[in-house]
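sry for the spam today, last one i promise. struct tokens for design, 128 residues
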């Protein structure tokens, strides 16, 4: 059973969003990291890059697959978790403590289309 963190928003592509001071902190869910297996590389956009909702903004690679990261919201990247460049496996250890990017949202109402923890759990259950 995948861990689902309360208080976060989730996309169908298994990214999570935490809204802090008008910014979106974005990472991957426990389900995503378990599906990937041992993560060996994280491709992230640079600061000041623009990302668009439902478009890819990077990728996570494991020993068995590569998976695109799909932006749950649109905006401008304000920060990237550079620790993941040297230690991508941190996403396997705790995907909720290890965010990937922070984004200044261009349209905060985009978060309304994301799922809360209960809806994400129901979504995962429906995928099994």
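last one done:
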């Amino acid at each position: 059973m995948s861990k689902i963190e309360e208080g976060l928003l989730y996309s169908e592509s298994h990214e999570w969003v935490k809204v802090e001071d008008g910014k979106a902190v974005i990472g991957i869910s426990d389900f995503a990291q378990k599906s990937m297996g041992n993560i060996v590389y994280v491709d992230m956009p640079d600061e000041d890059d623009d990302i668009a909702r439902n478009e890819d903004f990077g990728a996570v690679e494991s020993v068995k697959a590569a998976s695109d990261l799909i932006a749950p919201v649109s905006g401008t990247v304000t920060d990237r978790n550079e620790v993941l460049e040297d230690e991508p496996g941190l996403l396997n250890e705790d995907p909720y403590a290890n965010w990937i990017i922070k984004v200044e949202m261009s349209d905060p109402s985009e978060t309304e289309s994301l799922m809360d923890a209960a809806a994400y759990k129901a979504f995962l259950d429906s995928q099994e």
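Residues 50 and 76 are 4 Å apart (CA to CA). ok im logging off now
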